[in-house]
Amino acid sequence: MPREEARLREEMVQTGAAFRALGLAPGTSGNLSARLDDGWLMTPTNVGLGDLVAERISKLDWDGNLLSGDKPTKELVLHRAFYENRPGTGAVVHLHAPHAVALSCLEGLDAESCIAPITPYFVMRVGRLPLLPYFRPGDPAMGEAVGRVAPRQACVLLANHGPVVSAGSLALARAAMEELEETARLALLLHGRPVRVLGEAEIQPLRETFGADW
Ligand SMILES: O=C(O)[C@@H](O)C(=O)COP(=O)(O)O
Ligand SMILES: [Zn+2]
């Protein structure tokens, strides 16, 4: 096995365990993927992210055919939507992180960006967070909807389901996901209160300096 593939498998195991330890991956929810030179690694379906085994992680070719490992996540279409529509995507993470899931169940969210720019770090790590409609998990239509926004947005929130984050690497996707969850917690804490959000003049230099995915 190529050294980079072996390294990525280990990184997926460690990342899954970290999400579980943080309480962001309850039960068998959530899935991770990472890009290889000749396809993708994806977490198997129905396996807790805290219980991943490196050799059993699914390896797929660019057509989505299983090359080795266990049956892949049912959200294959969701992950592919980012890889195929967002150049530079090196990893995709979907979790049922509790505050982000709670937020995804609220009525009346701004579908263009359902968390306001309340802190600079959210702007730098996540940027805008479009809310997509509810889809049954694994629904190919969800992949199509994600594919339409992926060229412009690195992260989305699926209504009544949870967040999906793409980034250049698994480490960056993890950082963005943790920031998204923390900001969702803050947004819920602040819900119903008058909130000062960052203005365009404050956001612009953050975009320029950190190249967030806007
Ligand atoms: O919500 C779902 O069913 C999936 O999105 C999920 O989080 C876990 O599915 P698998 O990756 O197929 O286990
Ligand atoms: Zn899910």
UniProtKB/TrEMBL annotation:
Its cofactor is Zn(2+). It catalyses: 3-dehydro-4-O-phospho-D-erythronate + H(+) = dihydroxyacetone phosphate + CO2; 3-dehydro-4-O-phospho-L-erythronate + H(+) = dihydroxyacetone phosphate + CO2. Belongs to the aldolase class II family. AraD/FucA subfamily. SMART domains: Aldolase_II. One of its GO terms (biological process) is pentose catabolic process. NCBIfam families: OxoTetrPhDc, PRK08130.1. Residues 10-188 form the Class II aldolase/adducin N-terminal domain. GO terms for molecular function: aldehyde-lyase activity; metal ion binding. It comes from Aureimonas flava. One of its GO terms (cellular component) is cytosol. Catalyzes the decarboxylation of 3-oxo-tetronate 4-phosphate to dihydroxyacetone phosphate (DHAP) and CO(2). This is 3-oxo-tetronate 4-phosphate decarboxylase. Its EC number is 4.1.1.104. The keyword tRNA processing does not apply. The keyword Lipoprotein does not apply. Pfam families: Aldolase_II (PF00596). Keywords: Carbohydrate metabolism, Lyase, Metal-binding, Zinc.
